[in-house]
């Protein structure tokens, strides 16, 4: 099964329908998500908030196709992901989902341009659009002279901009962000959130998992999750 | 080949240069151990083979002494340790149309001229019309047809400065007269039939008249030009050893003996090379260890790769490339060093490097290099497989 329906304009880009995620442990099963249902429409900017242990990370893993639900259905662009093989899920992540992490998670052995091009190389090893990397790096407002630097030579804010550029390179349908400002000072964090808001205004669907109300204030809608259930 | 993963592998090796170099050193040692042992073994086999192969078409018949052995020389001895004329005639008839050459031999004192040192060398007595079959190559002069002439071996000629025309006084104080050297025999090395390098060869008549040693021979050499040496050996044994309890002759098939010697050398070479292989296995364990370390250090990186859409096989390829680079570079360096080492060892031990660039010797190098590369790649497979099969969520959480 391939997610060929992801480009439909009028249908939700992401649907959770009665999703349950249980982790079987020796001490007893732990229910991380308990009958969770919600939908994300194309172009939305959503924050997912909740206390520690509420199920935010589990929700993020399921939205990012890094994990599959115990029961219930998850649809991305109308395509159910439960039956997909590892290869199909990996291709889905590569082509339709962009990830932004709290600790930037750039590849230390690659320079800025190579980091940004990495998902493009996975998609089409023979054809890498060099201009595209420059375009997305300009979109995240990174100085040109930094393009050949390695991540270790950049500040936290610069690294996160590179990470955002990498997430955008394959034109994803959803941008999943895990505490994107959690490792930045407030001023840099605010500029990153401004950048995300700008990307959203240009049509990118963004879901931010955070516990920071200032981050949530940039979004259009907030999903509150407590003890594995959606409160609002 | 995925360019980005090849590039990452190269850079990871470069960034951990000391660690990678040590792993390569292990592989280099392994390849050198295997290849140089192979080079030495094959060179020895070829050296021995080239000195023995010229007598590979002979069957040697000697009096039965209760065991088997080969080689000419030795002094005249009691009649029961000699072949009789009757036995020779039987052999001659049995092996026809192959030529049966009766050989007398003894050790004798001799001098090269007045005032020269007394030396002891072997004297062979062979019918002059058959000498050319047993000793087909002379480096100087011609065969002796008269009783006053003799042929001398290559080492004998060099050591005692003997040339064609030189005279040799035979016996203590020249009691058996003087022989004129008519020809120098080409160096034959080790031989199953007669060892002429440090000997002189006289006519059968001269030998028999000098030593009164008629109608009995030290050995009979059959030059097999028709049929197989093994068949000739069987025929002789059937004819002369009819009484199985009391054998009268020992028959040696030089081709079979040569094959046994070559097989033995081959086995020794294989064994020694296998010992070299142990060092390669140790190097393989080191590669495995380093690859496991590399995977453990990069768990988070693997998690990031998997989360943004890298397939398992692509993660696997990255680690396989790394092991392959270490293996290829280390093995090639080892191969070059093996050739240099083989050259030095051959020059020192065999006094010649002529066997170094032959097919079997070069195959030893190819074998060592290939083994090194294969071991490295194999030792990289499990760590690569483990990396590829990490749970992306667990890998991302890894600190």
CATH architecture of chain A: 3-Layer(aba) Sandwich
List SSEs of chain B in N-to-C order: HHEEHEEHEEHEEEHEEHEHHHHH
Poorly predicted regions of chain B: 68-79
Number of helices of chain B: 12
Name the helicity range of chain B: 40-55%
How are the strands of the biggest sheet of chain B laid out side by side?
3-4-9-6-8-7
Structure report:
The complex is a heterodimer of chains A (232) and B (399). Chain A is of the alpha/beta class and 232 residues long. Chain A has a single domain, classed as P-loop containing nucleotide triphosphate hydrolases (Rossmann fold), CATH 3.40.50. Chain A is 32% helix and 24% strand. Chain A has seven helices and ten strands. A six-stranded mixed beta sheet of chain A has the order 6-7-8-3-9-10. In chain A, helix 6 links the parallel strand 7 and strand 8. In chain A, helix 3 packs parallel to helix 5 and helix 4 packs across helix 5. The radius of gyration of chain A is 18 Å and the shape is globular. The two termini of chain A are 33 Å apart. The N terminus of chain A is likely disordered. Chain B is α+β, with helices and mostly antiparallel strands. Chain B has two domains: 189 residues, no CATH class; 166 residues, no CATH class. In chain B, the strands form two sheets. In chain B, strands 3-4-9-6-8-7 form a six-stranded mixed beta barrel. In chain B, helix 8 packs across helix 10. Chain B is elongated. Chains A and B meet through helix 2 and helix 3 of A and helix 1, helix 9 and helix 12 of B.
Give keywords:
heterodimer, A: 232 residues, alpha/beta, Rossmann fold, 6-stranded mixed β-sheet, 7 helices, B: 399 residues, alpha+beta, 2 domains, 6-stranded mixed β-barrel
